[in-house]
Amino acid sequence: MLAIVKAIRIWRPYLLGKRFIVRTDHQSLKYLLEQRITTPAQSRWLPKLLGYDYAIEYKKGPENQVVDSLSRMGSQSKKWVEWIPWAKFSYNTSIHSATKITPFEAVYGKPPPSLLTYVPGTARVQAVDEYLQDRDQILRELRRNLQLAQERMKS
């Protein structure tokens, strides 16, 4: 019940004056508006739900695929943190449609640094050395292909 109260509070501007359906896999919540208030928590939460036009629909967990999928995300929920630096890098090096420059360039007055080229032989592991040399080769080809594409667009 607390989850419903919190969700309705967050989505309040979009829900006021509109009929909506709350889908749940808790069968007891289906009878929420028909039961007597027996706990202090219910007496606090139920008045917060009274001004809305909604229906509560019960769906078994396997039938309610969205809720079922979200309930399995527990083990994955902490992995998003490792992607934050990549998201920041992507944002700061992408050209903004309104300013026509990158946020990095807007703050520092110069274009963001490109990926550094690898100095062969500086890695301690042979496989890493080969990987970084291959990466540099791919970057060179990519730059050349982009240059050719730009020249074709100009002519």
UniProtKB/TrEMBL annotation:
Gene3D superfamilies: Ribonuclease H-like superfamily/Ribonuclease H (3.30.420.10)
A Gene Ontology molecular function term of the record: nucleic acid binding
Domain Reverse transcriptase RNase H-like positions: 1-52
Domain of life: Eukaryota
InterPro entries: DNA/RNA_pol_sf, RNaseH-like_sf, RNaseH_sf, RT_RNaseH
A Pfam family hit: RT_RNaseH
Keywords: Endonuclease, Hydrolase, Nuclease, Nucleotidyltransferase, RNA-directed DNA polymerase, Transferase
Keyword DNA-binding: no
Protein name: Reverse transcriptase RNase H-like domain-containing protein
Lineage: Eukaryota, Viridiplantae, Streptophyta, Embryophyta, Tracheophyta
